[in-house]
C-alpha cells in the first residue's frame, strides 16, 4: 500500500502523513476479530497470534527509486539536501509500531546506498547506514564503487560499524563493533587494479584479506 503511494512525486510529506492517518483510522474502525471470540481453540489462537506477530515484525515497504534516481554529484552535500528531510520524516514516523510497516533501507537491492556512494553524498550514506542499510547487496557493489573512487574513508565507513561515544564528551573513543561485511579478495583485487594503494594496504594489512595468485602477482 505504502509502496504504491510513495512511487508518485506528488506524495509529499503532508500527503504521506494524511494517507498514513487514513490507513490507521480504517484499521481502528475495522479491528481484527479476536480468535477466542469466534470459537477458535485456545492453542490454535495462540499459534495464529504468533504467526501474525512474525508477519508484522517483517512488514517493510520500499524506499522508492525516484528519491535517488535524479541525484547528481556536486562539490558539497549537507544534511538538509534532498531527499534527507523526506527520509528523516519517513524513518521517524514509520517505526513498525502499532502494526505499521517500516521502511526498508535495503530496498531494490541496495539501490539507495549505492547511488549515494556513487555521487559521494556522505550525509546520505551515513543516514542510510544508521538506519539499517547494508553494503552487501549485489556482491558489495557499494564498496566496489567506493574503491574505484579511491576513497578510503568511504570504504571504511561502509565496512566498519562504529558505536557513538556515550556521554556528552565527543572526545571519548568509539567502541569497535563487528564489521558490516567481511572484506574479501574481490575488493582487494579491485583496489590493486585501481592503484588505490591506501585501500590496498587497509584491506591487506588491517583487514587481513589474503590475496589469490592473480592479485598477488598484480601487487608485485
Structural notes for this entry:
There is one protein chain. This protein is an all-alpha fold. The protein has a domain at 1-18 and 55-133. It has helices at residues 2-6, 13-29, 42-57, 66-69, 84-93, 107-118, 122-130, 137-148, 152-159, 185-193, 197-206, 213-219, and strands at residues 60-62, 102-104. A two-stranded parallel sheet has the order 1-2. Helix 6 runs parallel beside helix 8, helix 8 (137-148) packs antiparallel against helix 9 (152-159) and helix 10 (185-193) packs parallel to helix 12 (213-219). The model has no long low-confidence stretch (mean pLDDT 85).
- How many helical stretches? 12
* Overall pLDDT metric: 85
End-to-end distance, in Å? 55 Å
**What structural class results from the helix and strand content?**
mainly alpha
> How much strand?
under 5%
Strand order of the largest sheet: 1-2
> Secondary-structure element order, as H and E?
HHHEHHEHHHHHHH
Radius of gyration: 22 Å
Largest β-sheet summary: 2 strands, parallel
Indicate the overall shape.
elongated
* Residue share in helix: 40-55%
The poorly predicted ranges are none
E-strand count:
2
